């Protein structure tokens, strides 16, 4: 980019072609999101102000963001925010970026909670591995009677989760604690209505095949299990039947092709499957289980 005057539409067209040459998918979307961040505009505003020239300072900032993105740094880290369940969340390099597939997990929990416990004053929810807090905050936002306790081993992630809880006005019903699931036992909790987790499940063999946006930038602690991808499921299921109440339930997000192995783990731990929910791509994504001998309504 030289020092000639660049207006919005000219910059959109140039940058879109640049991303296309670099083999980025959705090159125009990449351009628009970075330009929106640079100018503090919404995407529609870009086109309502298509002939607006950029200042040298704005152009320099946009150029720096382009350079970061071309190195495959996720846009969410560049802009420090993302959207999940229609809510705004802050993110940085210390937290895994919330995925659209995880919205299925949250939506199904909301459905079950409203169906089973809509008349209760309090529905206690325990989350293992909160990350950015997207699951806990979303549940608190959409379930007025939910009280959520979320744990994570990362202090930095917990700081972001608390910030997101404040951002979405759910601090009075969300609590975040620094704790590892592997330091707990069957007596650590009681009478939890819903136990939920989207744990690290990328195995050692899957790691190298990850996209550079994930492998090179997102915190490994949040997604890389390091073994066969199942250790967190084994631990969670080993305590789940003791932690959840008689009519309580367990919700787990699972990776591609993992559902059969996770189901085996669930069924070996005094739990039984209620349903398996698919994501937007038709992939088995959410395992819904309950204590054995609990009648399904």
Q: How is this structure best summarized?
A:
By secondary structure, the chain is α/β, with parallel strands linked by helices. It has 13 helices and nine strands. Helices cover 42% and strands 20% of the residues.
What does this structure look like?
There is one protein chain. The chain has 297 residues and is an alpha/beta fold. The protein has two domains: 64 residues, Helicase, Ruva Protein, domain 3; 200 residues, 3-Layer(aba) Sandwich (Rossmann fold), CATH 3.40.50.150. The protein has 13 helices and nine strands. The strands form two sheets. A seven-stranded mixed β-sheet has the order 5-4-3-6-7-9-8, with helices on both faces. A hairpin with a 5-residue loop joins strand 8 and strand 9. Helix 2 crosses helix 4 and helix 6 runs parallel beside helix 7. The model has no long low-confidence stretch (mean pLDDT 94).
Number of strands: 9
What is the CATH architecture assignment of the largest domain?
A: 3-Layer(aba) Sandwich
From the alpha carbons, calculate the radius of gyration and give it in angstroms: 21 Å
Mean pLDDT: 94
What structural keywords apply?
297 residues, two-stranded antiparallel sheet, Rossmann fold, 13 helices, alpha/beta
Topology:
Blueprint: H1 8-21, H2 27-39, H3 43-48, H4 56-70, H5 75-79, E1 81-84, E2 87-90, H6 102-117, E3 123-128, H7 134-142, E4 146-152, H8 155-167, E5 174-178, E6 192-197, H9 204-207, H10 212-215, H11 220-223, H12 231-243, E7 244-253, H13 259-267, E8 271-278, E9 284-291
Parallel strand pairs: 3-4, 3-6, 4-5, 6-7
Antiparallel strand pairs: 1-2, 7-9, 8-9
Helix pairs in contact: 1-2, 2-4, 6-7
